[in-house]
Design goal:
This protein is mainly β. 10% of the residues lie in helices and 46% in strands. It has 8 helices and 38 strands. The strands form 10 sheets. It has a 13-stranded antiparallel sheet with strand order 22-23-24-25-26-27-28-29-30-31-32-33-34. A 5-stranded mixed sheet has the order 15-20-21-18-19. It has a 4-stranded antiparallel sheet with strand order 8-7-10-11, with no helix packed on it. It is globular, with a radius of gyration of 28 Å.
C-alpha cells in the first residue's frame, strides 16, 4: 500500500571543455603558471601531495620562489605550462520524493616540467605545511600532480633501517589518517593524523594498506614510493568493514556474509529512516519495528528485536522493550551501514540472534569544512477503492542538514533533520525531529577520542491495528483521535582508541541510550502507557598479533538496562560478558577463525542465566573477485524487561507478565 509516485529524472548538463592557453611571451606564460600554483597551493602534504586553499602568500615570498623556479627551469630548458578550466552545472528534479539542484564549479591549474618535478616539489616544500589538516577538504586539484605521482621513483630500501611514506586518496588527493598497514610477516601499524607511516627494522617484504571505503592495496617494499595512493572501493569485495570481526578487514576476507550500504545509495533514494534503507539489502525485510534477516526473526509486536542495531558500534535498543528505534538514526550524518547476516552473538552478545546492523556516521576529518542541505517531498498513492479513506494523496516531506569543521586536531560534525508525513492510512500523521553532534579529538598521532550526542523526538497518532480486512487503512471506530504517542530518545557515547605499537591496540567505549514514551490520552478500554528506560553500555577490546599470521581480539562487555518507574515497575537487567576470537592466515588463500563468548544475564528477583556462544569459520580467496566462505555460530537473545514484567491491555491485545521466560537461541 505504501508506494511513492515517481517519474523519470530529468537532467541537464552544461560543460565547457578544458582549453590550453598559450602566450606569445613564453616567460610571461611561465610566470602565470607558477603564480596560479603558488596562490592556490599554500599548504602542502609532504611527499608529493599538495593542499589547495584560497590563501595568498606575501608578494616577497612569491617573487623569491618565482625567481628560484625560473632560474632552475632555464637550466633545464624544457618546460611546458597549461591552464585548464572546467565548469559544469547539473540540475536534477524528481517527483519521487526529492528535488535537488547541484551546481559545481572547479578550476584546475597545472604546471609540469619533463625533468623539473623535483624543483616544483621542492618549491612547495618551502611553503607553509601547517595548513594541511585545517584545509584537507580543498584537495580538489590532484590532476596537477599526476605527473609527480606517475614518475615518482621507488624508495631505496635495500639497506634501510626505516622507511617513511604517506597514504592518500587518488580521488581527492587528501591524506588518509588512521589507515591500517598490515605486514606480510605479521603485525602492522596505522597512519598517524597526518597520514604518515614509519616502518622500522625488521622491515617486511610487502605490506597491505586498508581504510574504510577504500580499495585494499598490497605493495612490495622494493616498489614502495613516497606516497601510497588508494582508490575508492569499486566493488563490494573491495570494501573494508569493521562489524564482521570487530576490526578492519576487507569484505572478501570475512567468513560471515556482510552487506555494506553506502551513503550515496541512501542519498539517491531520499531515504530518511533505517527501515527504508534496509529494504534494499538482499535477504532483509522489515515489518513495522522488526528486522528480519533471512527469516530469523518473524514478527512479534512489542517483544523486542532479534537483530542487534548499533550506532558507531554502540547498541541502540531500548532498555525496557529491547526494540530498535528507527527514527533515532541520524541519516543526515549517515556514512555507511553494515549488515551481518547470521548469528553474531559470539562477538556482539545478546540480541544478535539473526544478525547485526551497524550504522556508521561521518568522520569530520574525512569530509572537513563542508555544508550540506537537502529537502525531499512526495505523496503516497491512494489504495484501491475499497480501502480509500480520502480523496487526495497523503503528503510526506522533510529537510536534512549537516556541517563539518576541522580546528587543528579537533573535528566537529553537526547534523539535524525534520520529517512530517500524513501516513498511508487514516490516523497516521507523524512529525519527527533528530539532532546529532560528533566531536573527534586527536590527542597525538596514535590516540583518538570520539564523543557523540543524539536527541530525537517524535509525535504520531497512536494507531495500532486496522478496523477490518475490508477497511484495512482505517482504525477502529472507538479510537480516540486525540490520542497520540509522544516519544524521545537520547544517546551519548565516548570512544577512545590508541595504538601501542605495530602489534597491539586498545579501544574502549561507553554509551547511554535513554528512551521515554507516553500516550497523551487513553482510548476507550485501553491502558495509558508511559515508560522511561536507560540502557548503559561499556566495552573494552584489545587486539594483538602474538604470532605471524595470527590476530587475536579479546574483550569485556557490560550492558545495564533499568526502568526507574513505569507500568513495568522499578526493574533492571544486567548482562556481563567475556569474549575472544582468533584469526589465522593458514596460507595466501585460506583464512580460519574461531571465537567464544560467555554471557551472564540477570534480571530483578530472578536467577542468573549463563549463555555460551561459540563460532568457527573459514574463508578461501581465489582472487579479488572470487572467494568462498563458511561459518557456523550461535546466537541468543535474553527476554526484555517488557516481556518479563509487563501487564497491559490494548483493545483485543492483552500482554501478561512471564518471569519464567529464558533466553532464545539460534544456530
Amino acid at each position: 500500500m505504501r508506494q511513492l509516485l515517481s517519474s523519470e529524472k530529468q537532467k541537464t548538463n552544461v560543460a565547457f571543455m578544458p582549453v590550453a592557453r598559450r602566450s606569445e611571451n613564453p616567460r610571461l606564460d611561465l610566470w602565470r603558471g607558477f603564480r596560479e600554483i603558488l596562490v592556490w597551493g599554500r599548504g602542502l602534504v609532504p611527499r608529493r601531495v599538495a593542499h589547495f586553499t584560497r590563501a595568498t602568500s606575501s608578494r616577497s615570498t612569491l617573487l623569491l620562489v618565482f625567481f628560484a623556479c625560473t632560474l632552475f627551469s632555464s637550466a633545464i630548458g624544457n618546460t611546458s605550462t597549461s591552464t585548464n578550466t572546467s565548469t559544469s552545472t547539473n540540475t536534477s528534479t524528481s517527483s519521487n520524493t526529492s528535488t535537488s539542484t547541484n551546481t559545481s564549479t572547479s578550476s584546475n591549474t597545472s604546471t609540469s616540467s619533463n625533468t623539473g618535478a623535483n624543483a616544483i616539489n621542492s618549491a612547495f616544500n618551502r611553503t607553509n605545511s601547517s595548513a594541511m589538516s585545517a584545509h584537507s577538504n580543498e584537495f580538489q586539484l590532484k590532476k596537477s600532480f599526476e605527473l609527480l605521482k606517475s614518475t615518482a621513483p621507488a624508495q631505496d630500501t635495500s639497506e634501510a633501517n626505516s622507511v617513511v611514506f604517506f597514504v592518500a586518496s587518488t580521488e581527492s588527493a587528501a591524506v588518509i589518517p588512521g589507515a591500517s598497514v598490515l605486514f606480510s610477516t605479521g603485525g602492522g601499524t596505522y597512519a598517524n593524523a597526518r597520514g604518515r607511516v614509519e616502518l622500522t627494522s625488521p622491515l617486511p617484504d610487502s605490506l597491505t594498506v586498508r581504510s574504510l571505503g577504500m580499495r585494499s592495496l598490497t605493495v612490495a617494499l622494493s616498489l614502495l614510493q613516497d606516497t601510497v595512493w588508494m582508490e575508492s572501493a569499486t566493488s563490494m569485495s573491495d570494501a573494508v568493514v569493521v562489524t564482521a570481526g570487530r576490526r578492519e578487514q576487507a569484505l572478501r576476507e570475512s567468513s560471515v556474509a556482510v552487506e555494506r550500504v553506502e551513503a550515496k545509495t541512501v542519498r539517491n533514494k531520499a531515504i530518511s529512516e533505517l527501515d527504508d534503507a534496509l529494504q534494499f539489502v538482499p535477504g532483509v525485510t522489515v515489518a513495522r519495528d522488526q528486522i528480519n534477516i533471512r527469516g530469523s526473526s518473524g514478527f512479534s509486536l512489542g517483544l523486542g528485536s532479534r537483530v542487534l542495531v548499533l550506532l558507531d558500534n554502540t547498541p541502540m535498543l531500548a532498555g525496557d522493550g529491547g526494540d530498535a528505534k528507527f527514527d533515532a538514526v541520524p541519516f543526515a550524518a549517515f556514512e555507511s551501514m553494515e549488515v551481518v547476516k547470521g548469528a553474531g552473538s559470539s562477538l556482539w552478545g545478546g540480541s544478535a540472534l539473526g544478525g547485526v546492523v551497524n550504522v556508521v556516521t561521518q568522520d569530520p576529518f574525512a569530509v572537513p569544512n563542508t555544508l550540506s542541505l537537502s529537502a525531499y517531498s512526495g505523496i503516497y498513492t491512494l489504495p484501491h477503492e475499497q480501502w480509500q479513506y480520502r480523496s487526495t494523496s497523503p503528503f510526506v516531506g522533510g529537510v536534512e542538514a549537516a556541517a563539518t569543521s576541522v580546528l587543528g586536531n579537533i573535528g566537529i560534525l553537526a547534523a539535524g533533520s525534520f520529517n512530517r508525513t500524513e501516513g498511508y492510512h487514516d490516523f497516521g500523521e507523524s512529525r519527527r525531529f533528530t539532532g546529532f553532534a560528533k566531536t573527534v579529538a586527536r590527542l597525538n598521532d596514535y590516540t583518538r577520542v570520539t564523543a557523540t550526542g543524539l536527541y530525537a523526538e517524535q509525535t504520531k497518532d497512536n494507531w495500532v491495528f486496522w478496523k477490518s480486512l475490508k477497511e484495512a487503512t482505517s482504525p477502529p471506530d472507538n479510537i480516540d483521535r486525540d490520542d497520540q504517542l509522544v516519544s524521545s530518545k537520547l544517546h551519548a557515547s565516548l570512544h577512545v582508541q590508541t595504538v601501542f605499537n605495530a602489534t597491539s591496540s586498545l579501544q574502549a567505549q561507553a554509551s547511554l541510550f535513554r528512551t521515554h514514551y507516553e500516550t497523551t490520552g487513553p482510548s476507550s478500554g485501553n491502558d495509558s502507557l508511559a515508560s522511561t528506560a536507560n540502557s548503559w553500555f561499556f566495552d573494552a577490546q584489545y587486539t594483538a598479533t602474538p604470532l605471524d599470521n595470527l590476530i587475536s581480539t579479546s574483550g569485556i562487555s557490560m550492558r545495564l538496562n533499568s526502568v526507574p518507574e513505569s507500568y513495568l515497575g522499578a526493574v533492571s537487567q544486567s548482562l556481563l560478558a567475556l569474549w575472544t576470537q582468533a584469526e589465522w592466515k593458514a596460507s595466501s588463500l585460506l583464512r580460519l577463525n574461531a571465537g567464544l563468548r560467555l554471557d551472564a544475564e540477570h534480571s530483578t528477583n530472578l536467577e542468573t542465566e549463563l549463555v555460551v556462544s561459540p563460532n568457527i569459520g573459514a574463508n578461501f580467496t581465489v582472487n579479488d573477485e572470487v572467494f568462498a566462505r563458511a561459518n557456523v555460530g550461535t546466537g541468543f537473545r535474553a527476554p526484555s524487561l517488557g516481556e518479563r514484567f509487563s501487564n497491559l491491555r490494548y483493545g483485543s491485545f492483552v500482554v501478561q507478565a512471564n518471569q519464567d521466560l529464558t533466553a532464545e537461541h539460534s544456530v
